[in-house]
Amino acid sequence: MSDAGNGLSVSYQTPSGLTVKRLQPEIGAEITGVDLCEPISGDVGSDIRQALVDHGVVFFRRQPLGYAQHLALARVFGEPHVEGFLPDRPEIMPLVSDAANTNPAGGHWHSDGTYYDVAPAVSILLCHQAAELGGDTCFASAAAVYAGLPDELKRQIAPLRARASMSHIRTVKGLDDDSATYIGRTGDDVDRGWAEHPVVRIHPETGKPVLYVNEVHTQEIVGMEPEESAALLQSLTDRFLRAEYQMRWSWRDHDITIWDNRQVQHYAVANEAGPRHVERIMVQGTPSVGLNETLAMETAE
Ligand SMILES: [Fe+2]
Q: Which residues surround ligand 1, an ion (CB under 5 A)?
């Protein structure tokens, strides 16, 4: 098992005995050797958290969790976010789709909930029914995207902040103002979320800078003329399209995927050729801290 960059082997054992197999050099790992239907010990939880920090997104096959187990897995990472769609399961966001009505949250790169002041740190998706064909999810490392930027561009964006909103997605996706079609939310709900974040965010656990703008939530760079802002955002979000930064997951029934919204973006491929049913729980995060704020703190010390 040779070292393949970042100090970790392609496949390795964690202290609690999980097997972690990396999927691409920049992103992703599959974890085996654990039954998530059973209570998760502190040691196993700690190893899963570490694998998520190290690889940005982790996958488990054959984990037919119920609601209580899905919730227990979320609590390994922190306090679950309440969605409020289902009265009996308030933390669950259900996404049911098929060939005629593809995933409404699909077809664009984003990280979840950046229109909140404090965006969710982690999302945990449980696949109850995978599409017979299609409906994959792609993931891209926002840390790798940032690392690949030219130095001059890194210097330019270091002090910048950007506004993100839920309503911006309607513009990008061509929905009208009264549309309630985006993940079932009504107009008022859609307008509820609005937040400002640094363009370059420091990951609170790795300490690495990540590019923290996305093509559907990030509306404008603060203090920049609209045309200049739009051009810069386009040039930044386009960099997530490089295949070297990405991986792609083909779902099977009872897969679990956990991704770190603070360092990866995802893209649900809206081409499911048949019924698909997945359910998501998000875990609350911490306020975003920008690269320039970190540098200022270091200078002051
Ligand atoms: Fe998403």
A: 112
